[in-house]
Each structure stands twice: as C-alpha cells, then as structure tokens.
Amino acid sequence: xxxxxxxxxxxxxxxxxxxxxxxxxxxxxxxxxxxxxxxxxxxxxxxxxxxxxxxxxxxxxxxxxxxxxxxxxxxxxxxxxxxxxxxxxxxxxxxxxxxxxxxxxxxxxxxxxxxxxxxxxxxxxxxxxxxxxx
Length: 134
Description:
By secondary structure, this protein is an alpha+beta fold. The chain is 25% helix and 46% strand. The chain has helices at residues 2-29, 46-51, and strands at 32-40, 43-44, 54-60, 65-71, 79-88, 93-98, 102-110, 114-119, 128-133.
C-alpha cells in the first residue's frame, strides 16, 4: 500500500510541476512587448524593420487575445491587428490568429522581460524577433 501512495504522490508532483511551468509561461507572455532587435538570415535588420513598423507593440492578454499595433511610416495611420493567441507544441510555440492569417512562432526565450521568437512562416527567411517588456 505504501508503494501505491508513493507512486500516486510522484504522479501528482510531476503533474503539478508541468502545470506550474505552463502557468509561469502564460503569466510571462501576458503583457505588452516592443521590438529590441530583428534578425533575418542572421543579419541585423532592426533599423529597416522598425522603419516600417514604427512604435510596434504586441500585447497578449491572459484570456488568449492579442493586439498588434504600429505605424507603417512616419505620419501614417496606426495599423491595428487583433485576434487570439495560444501556446502550441506544449509551450514551445505561440500561434497568433486574426481575421486574415495564422502565424506560428517558435519561442526561443520567454521570461518576464524577454520574449524571443522565430517566425516559422515559409516566406520569413527565419526572421527572429527579440522583444522586451514595454
């Protein structure tokens, strides 16, 4: 009987550990992020990218919603995209879905201050974003 109890407790402890990691990721991701660096084909393209995504912000909320906003050019009108987000492949990827598209990003780093992702779209050429908390 004691082996059964130990086995049960081990399963509970492992299950709680997994839930804690997923909940921590959800807590860390749910905030507003801004661009720190952008790389494509291992080249720093931050200045080029931010010239067409001025004041870029990505806000992810606890309820699975997101808002992406930026100005496409100096003096241009604000572009806003809203939709839903969810973790996929455990918590290794994040999927953003809006009315026009679904985008999947590999999560390279996620903590309360940094959100580094790689765009997995075929036409992104492995574009990587280093986002920081706003």
